[in-house]
Design brief:
Keywords: DNA-binding, Transcription, Transcription regulation. By secondary structure, the protein is α/β, with parallel strands linked by helices. It folds into three domains: 52 residues, lambda repressor-like DNA-binding domains (434 Repressor (Amino-terminal Domain)); 133 residues, 3-Layer(aba) Sandwich (Rossmann fold), CATH 3.40.50.2300; 129 residues, Response regulator (Rossmann fold, 3-Layer(aba) Sandwich). The protein is 42% helix and 14% strand. It has 13 helices and twelve strands. The strands form two sheets. The chain has a six-stranded parallel beta sheet with strand order 2-1-3-4-5-11, sandwiched between helices.
Length: 343
């Protein structure tokens, strides 16, 4: 087998010559496609297809002592959200494009020990953390032991510059939701989410606070927090709706809270919901409501690509974390006739 060859005898040098690029460019297309211009990558892939080149992963892994696997701990879904499932799918696609696989694992006992064992035994090369909490103790623990990882979520409560991370700007997303509700004529826009101290929940509430200030809304009394559970969210929303000046709309921290708020508002005599409600995460639940609800959608495909790119940089020997990646979500608007706001 020639140098850099595959099981068919085609070499990486032959692919490079056919595409008119360097061997390193071919290697980047296979391992880190985000580093290559799209038109160049397309030319290399055409050459790969025409020559029938297939990298010998087993030989590469043996030489490099790598598994080309990324570890991701299974996380139980909260409320009605399918966010973890969608991120897992996006991460698997992004990792596959870079020549990696994703290993989903559970950690019923000691997560730190389980994660370290996966790294030390060569089962995985690195980890992706998705359930990062305020002051999360795993981050410094992994760092001290030289375990490579990237976070989906900002490391809150500790120096972010020490770690590798990508995140979605939740404050921007909720602010967009408030802007939309104000454009529909609402002046009493409530926020329903987690109690303070949740990290990303605090971020989303901050977006609501910024937007109501910017629009000059009188909404200081229109905040409620509850567990992320439809029944608990509905109860919290009913408390706000029982006030002397109730809200006419809700911007919510998640789709679970949004479903609770919609149920609390009930249906009017005209057959339409009494409240305008915007959720966060654009899960199937908001589309199954009648009528469907608008919701903020996180760019999970792009998050996954950025996370994989950061992991490849980390595994390539970069010791100083790059600046964290912050992405903006989109507001998916599903219009319906809706109630006339009470000013």
């Amino acid at each position: 087998m020639g140098r850099g060859g595959d099981a068919t005898g085609v070499t990486i040098s032959e692919v490079a010559a056919a595409a008119g690029v360097s061997r390193q460019t071919v290697s980047n297309v296979l391992k880190a496609p985000e580093r290559v211009a799209p038109e160049t990558a397309a030319r290399v892939r055409r050459a790969i297809d025409e020559l029938g080149y297939r990298p010998n992963r087993a030989a590469q892994n043996l030489r490099q002592r790598t598994s080309r696997c990324i570890g991701l701990k299974m996380v139980s879904p909260s409320g009605v959200s399918d966010l973890f499932d969608r991120f897992l799918h996006a991460l698997t696609e992004a990792a596959g494009a870079a020549g990696y696989h994703v290993l989903l694992f559970g950690a019923a006992g000691d997560e730190l020990t389980t994660s370290e064992d996966l790294i030390r035994t060569g089962t995985v090369d690195a980890l992706v953390l998705v359930d990062v909490e305020v002051g999360d103790p795993r981050l410094p623990w992994f760092t001290r032991r030289g375990i490579p990882f990237v976070c989906f979520g900002r490391p809150r409560g500790q120096a972010r510059g020490r770690f590798w991370w990508a995140d979605v700007d939740g404050a921007h997303g909720v602010a967009r939701a408030v802007d939309h509700l104000v454009a529909r004529g609402h002046r009493r826009v409530a926020y329903l989410g987690w109690p303070p101290g949740n990290g990303f929940g605090d971020d989303r509430r901050a977006g609501w606070e910024e937007a109501v200030r910017r629009h000059g809304l009188d909404a200081a009394d229109l905040v409620a927090g509850s567990a992320e559970d439809v029944a608990a969210a509905a109860a919290a929303a009913r408390t706000l709706l029982a006030g002397s000046e109730p809200p006419t709309a809700f911007a919510c921290g998640s789709d679970t809270f949004a479903v609770g708020a919609r149920l609390a508002g009930g249906i009017g005599p005209d057959g339409w919901p009494n409240l305008d409600v915007v959720g966060f995460d654009d899960s199937p639940a908001v589309m199954l409501m009648s009528p469907p609800m608008s919701s903020v959608r996180q760019p999970l495909d792009e998050v996954a690509r950025r996370v994989v790119g950061l992991l490849i940089d980390r595994l390539s020997g970069a010791e100083t974390p790059r600046e964290g990646v912050m992405l903006r979500p989109d507001l998916v608007i599903r219009e319906w006739r809706g109630p006339e706001p009470v000013h």
